[in-house]
Automatic annotation (TrEMBL):
This is Rrf2 family transcriptional regulator. It comes from Streptomyces prunicolor. Pfam families: Rrf2. Keywords: DNA-binding. The keyword DNA-binding applies. InterPro entries: TR_Rrf2-type_CS, Tscrpt_reg_Rrf2, WH-like_DNA-bd_sf, WH_DNA-bd_sf. The keyword DNA-binding applies.
Length: 157
């Protein structure tokens, strides 16, 4: 699985809103896109498109004007990493652009379908089990911490 730059930037932008916005750790109200872009080293133009996708998905709200900017549309504890990734990239795991459940294989390739479905289920389990609030509080769920702490987690065989 590959996390796109778009998905990475989107999660970082939402996290920045969580800690800077009204319901975050620093109650600043709406946050300007420029502030997010600078804080997270995200190209501003690219971020604007991402924020538009997040707004359409109901993850962020925007307000125009001098006191305007972006804020979370709901509590950070109600937004999962999966929600953010789906908003900007679509389905979390697909094979050739299709959901694994929409595929069929024959012959020796038949065992691939349950493999792809299991992969999707496990990725979803992790990404749907971590909220923006968890990340903002540096409180990842214990199963995620355990997986990340495995010595071979980042090694390629």
């Amino acid at each position: 699985m590959r996390i796109s730059a778009r998905a990475d930037y989107a999660v970082r932008a939402v996290l920045e809103l969580a800690v800077r916005g009204d319901d975050g750790l620093v109650p600043d109200g709406p946050v300007k896109a420029e502030t997010i872009a600078t804080a997270q080293d995200i190209p501003h133009k690219f971020l604007e498109g991402i924020l538009g996708d997040l707004r359409r998905a109901g993850i962020v709200d925007s307000r125009r004007g001098g006191g305007g900017g972006y804020r979370l549309a709901r509590a950070a504890g109600a937004i999962t990493v999966a929600d953010v990734i789906r908003a900007v990239d679509g389905p979390i795991v697909s094979v050739r652009g299709e959901r694994p459940t929409g595929l069929s294989y024959t012959g020796t390739a038949e065992p691939l379908l349950p493999l792809w479905i299991a992969l999707r289920a496990n990725v979803r389990k992790i990404l749907e089990g971590v909220t923006v609030a968890d990340i903002a509080a540096d409180a990842l769920p214990e199963p995620v911490r355990r997986l990340a702490a495995e010595p071979a987690a980042w090694e390629n065989p």
